[in-house]
Design brief:
Strand order of the largest sheet: 1-6-2-3-4-5
Mean pLDDT: 86
Length: about 120
């Protein structure tokens, strides 16, 4: 299926497709975008954030209106009720592992950064 992975040179393509899948759910969607406050991330999901000018403009609700916006996604590698660990390679030229505190498994709005969406992966 062409939905398996929306290959593109920019993160915005995956993010917009995932949000679209989240707004119009289908059992066949490989990637489903969830609001940060509504979903408990699990290993294999992506945590995506805006960057640069998009920090002040792009939101979950309007991301699909943009043809392009700067963003980055990190892979969730561990999750619990109190934290998630993510790993990402698009940070100052290196791969970084980061621990993010959670409340009942969810990322609180005051967690900082410009978290935009959690992309649930449903690949077998």
């Amino acid at each position: 299926s062409s939905d398996l992975f929306p290959y593109a040179p920019i993160h915005a393509t995956l993010i917009k497709k995932a949000i679209e899948n989240g707004l119009q759910p289908s059992r066949d969607s490989s990637f489903v975008g969830h609001r940060i406050s509504d979903y408990v991330p699990r290993p294999g999901d992506f945590l995506c954030a805006t960057r640069l000018w998009a920090n002040d403009e792009v939101t979950y609700d309007n991301a699909r209106d943009y043809e392009f916006f700067p963003a980055r996604c990190e892979l969730v590698i561990e999750s619990s009720d109190h934290h998630i660990d993510v790993i990402g390679g698009d940070r100052m030229g290196s791969v970084v592992r980061e621990r993010i505190k959670t409340v009942n498994g969810k990322i609180p709005s005051e967690a900082g950064k410009n978290w935009l969406v959690i992309v649930e992966t449903n690949l077998n």
